[in-house]
Amino acid sequence: MKKAEFIQAVSEKAGLSKKDTQKAVDAALEAISDALVAGKEVSFIGFGTFSTATRAARKARVPGTDRV
To answer: Alpha-carbon distance 33 to 59, whole Å?
Structure first.
């Protein structure tokens, strides 16, 4: 499901205009993003948890030259 489809579905279920729903969805996503940037974990019971993790760097090769 793409963002536009999600907004349409939420709009229909909540009985809100698409414009108001888009504002609400954008605000919710921004709040989640801000919390993650601040190093916090965001949990929705029964849905899932959003968190960040630090990973080790990887070496990549350049396609065509096989250089690392």
So the answer is: 28
Who's near 64: CB < 8 A, 6+ residues apart?
none
Residue by residue, DSSP assigns 2-66 as -HHHHHHHHHHHHT--HHHHHHHHHHHHHHHHHHHHTT--EEETTTEEE-----------BTTTT
pLDDT tens across 20-41, in order? 999 999 999 999 999 999 999 9
Query: Mapping DSSP to helix (H, G, I), strand (E, B) and coil, where does residue 1 land?
Result: coil
For the chain, the structural domain boundaries read 20-46
pTM score > 0.70 for this model? yes
